[in-house]
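Q: What residues go here?
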């Protein structure tokens, strides 16, 4: 495995893209409780996510960072989650990064649109605190502990524009 394809130290394992501070805090608390939030960043809108991955001087673009999972809300300011998902899955440099849509929407158009755009999973945020907490805990355990990521299969940083 080439070192150019490995994340640098302190690179995020999880990128949470969530504009609601309450939902973000619940997500962070659930992941922290399981010891899964050490390498997590929270971005508050779709534009921040796109800048993080693709922007000139963006953290991920500059460091060739590939998180183990992106937790993406759909209803985001500036750039909505569907567009963010399309951009991530439409770019060969980032299409293999797992994206879990974590949203309050149960609308068929959102579910179908997310899967058509390449979502790896679609989870409706439970309204009940305990159920939300448990869902996030299980989600984190699966993507960070159980799932086998495609290490070494991302294009090297020198292939970035």
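A:
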């Amino acid at each position: 495995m080439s070192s150019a394809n490995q994340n640098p130290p302190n690179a995020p394992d999880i990128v949470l893209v969530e504009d609601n501070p309450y939902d973000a805090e619940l997500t962070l608390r659930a992941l922290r409780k399981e010891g899964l939030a050490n390498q997590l960043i929270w971005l508050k809108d779709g534009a921040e996510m796109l800048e993080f991955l693709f922007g000139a001087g963006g953290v991920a673009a500059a460091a060739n960072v590939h998180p183990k999972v992106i937790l993406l809300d759909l209803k985001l300011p500036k750039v909505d989650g569907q567009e963010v998902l399309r951009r991530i899955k439409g770019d060969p440099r980032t299409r293999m990064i797992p994206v879990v849509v974590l949203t309050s929407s149960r609308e068929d158009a959102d579910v179908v649109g997310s899967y058509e755009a390449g979502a790896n999973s679609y989870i409706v945020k439970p309204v009940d605190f305990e159920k939300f907490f448990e869902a996030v805990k299980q989600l984190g355990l699966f993507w960070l502990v159980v799932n086998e990521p495609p290490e070494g299969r991302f294009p090297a940083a020198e292939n970035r524009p």
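A: Context that may help when evaluating the design: The chain has a mean pLDDT of 83. The longest helix spans residues 129-146.
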